[in-house]
Specification:
mainly beta; 51% strand
Length: 144
């Protein structure tokens, strides 16, 4: 039986299953795209996108645009960082670029040189009044 097919043998990070580890001796150049949790301890140049969580180790160096669901950054990132949920910058984090996230946590000692934009999904306009069965649509008229 292969360890890659045995779900119980996959490493975890705080109880979360890790799908990809870019180790300290690994250098990735180009567009990296993953669907699971990713840990970066090495070097990445280009773009890095994952649908789940990203952890960047203290010795990692990333020169790329970064997109993830959530992220904990302890290393260096040069480029745009877009995080859908929570972005945590530890005391050893060094960010040189703009960030966009819903929730931001910055530890004392972290460096952030760039623009920070806090975003939340905009609320959907209520066109149909109160929700529930029997709700009647509102009629929007153009005033003359």
């Amino acid at each position: 039986m292969s360890i890659f097919n045995d779900k119980q043998s996959l490493p975890t990070n705080g109880g979360r299953e890790i799908e990809t580890v870019i180790g300290p001796s690994v250098k990735v150049e180009g567009n990296f795209r993953g669907q699971g949790n990713v840990i970066v301890e090495g070097v990445v140049h280009g773009s890095l996108k994952t649908d789940k969580d990203l952890t960047v180790g203290a010795g990692a160096k990333i020169s790329a645009s970064v997109i993830a669901a959530n992220a904990k950054i302890s290393g260096e990132v040069r480029g745009t960082v877009k995080i859908k949920g929570k972005l945590e910058l530890t005391e050893t984090a060094r960010i040189f670029g703009d960030i966009e996230t819903e929730t931001l946590s910055v530890a004392p000692g972290a460096i952030l040189n760039g623009k920070c934009t806090m975003v939340k999904e905009p609320p959907t306009p209520e066109l149909f009044g109160p929700a529930g069965a029997g709700a009647k649509p509102k009629i929007l008229e153009k005033k003359k």
